[in-house]
Design goal:
Helix content is about 85%, strand content about 0%. It is mainly α and about 150 residues long. The protein has a single domain, classed as Four Helix Bundle (Hemerythrin (Met), subunit A) (Up-down Bundle). Helix 1 runs antiparallel to helix 2, helix 1 packs antiparallel against helix 5 and helix 2 packs antiparallel against helix 4. It is elongated. The model has no long low-confidence stretch (mean pLDDT about 90).
Length: about 150
């Protein structure tokens, strides 16, 4: 496989993983909005299922990003010295930290086992965390494109 084709496929895989992550963040946001009106156990199970896919998407973004850095056209050393990569990684780490907080809340709700599983205020707070993740995520492709185009 030519290096150019490999780099293009790695870039495609990375962008696809980011889009996949956006799908599950959007799904979680929509379910949390629905939960404000109908907080029952089946909805909590759906949220937990979406959370598994969300974490899988985070892993896919990390794996494809690492593959792009280490197997792409540019030497990984050139990426290591580029401040844009470090900004992108810091934003990704911030998203992960917000997702950990959200996962802990979902586990606490599951342990409670009550119906409804959360108060309206708790649901709105959880949705706010997910919305912040979505807003931070919007910056990742921007820094990625700047990085890819040599800025």
């Amino acid at each position: 496989m030519s290096p150019m084709l490999r780099a293009a496929l790695l870039g495609y895989a990375h962008v696809s993983a980011i889009l996949l992550l956006s799908v599950f963040i959007s799904a979680q946001t929509a379910l949390l909005h629905a939960a404000v009106f109908d907080a029952h156990a089946a909805l909590l199970q759906r949220l937990r299922r979406i959370e598994v896919w969300l974490w899988g998407s985070f892993a896919a973004v990390a794996a494809t990003g690492a593959a792009h850095v280490f197997l792409g056209l540019r030497a990984w050393q050139s990426f290591a010295l580029d401040w844009l990569l470090w900004v992108k990684l810091a934003l990704f780490a911030l998203m992960l930290a917000m997702a950990v907080a959200g996962s802990r809340t979902l586990r606490a709700w599951q342990r409670r086992g009550a119906t409804p599983f959360a108060s309206t205020a708790e649901l709105r707070a959880q949705r706010r965390w997910v919305m912040w993740q979505a807003h931070v995520m919007v910056l990742l492709p921007l820094f990625g494109m700047l990085l890819a185009h040599g800025y």
